[in-house]
Design a protein that fits this description.
alpha+beta; five-stranded mixed beta sheet; four-stranded antiparallel beta sheet
Length: about 210
Amino acid sequence: MIRTTRRAASSADLAALTPTGDSFGRNVLRGSLPVAGAVFLAALLISRSVWIAGAMGGALFALSLASNAGFFADARRRAGQRADTEAVEIIDVDASHIVDLEPVGSHGPALVFFSDDGRAIMLIGQWLLEQRSFPSKAFRLARWADTGKVIRIEATEGAVTPEHSTVRVPNGAGDIEILDATPETLAHDLERRFGRVRAARERSRS
């Protein structure tokens, strides 16, 4: 079974954005300033020019400030979504079979979870390495509905070892893909799904 529902953002969803209680000022003091200062000193030692070192350190500091400002602005926006009953997408998975695919390039781990009704969910990326008690045959995945960014995965069964597959990760696949597939026809199912994606992209370019 693979079931998708939506709900409003919970306190746990919002807390996951800043799990250590970080703030803009704290991130700047503990991260941006020390790193920019280290770059300034290294550039000064190499170039012997205060102007060059200042430009490099200042540019890095400005980029870090912009990144932090964007992150915390998004966190505030998410907090305002409590009234949005479709802000968070929940995917409940009860799988009968799990395989790991051959990664391509820097894709990272790639797992496919098959349900008994002929559907599957494919998860791809380094973020999978951060999940505890995973992969599991039964889990709940929460992600932001507008961006698809994963909030967390809650395994409801213990971790299992997936079966290795020689099927490779398809080009064009996102971090999370839900599709019609079975373990026996996986290569064909992926080609049918992502071959159409490639064809559509080629048509749009022409």
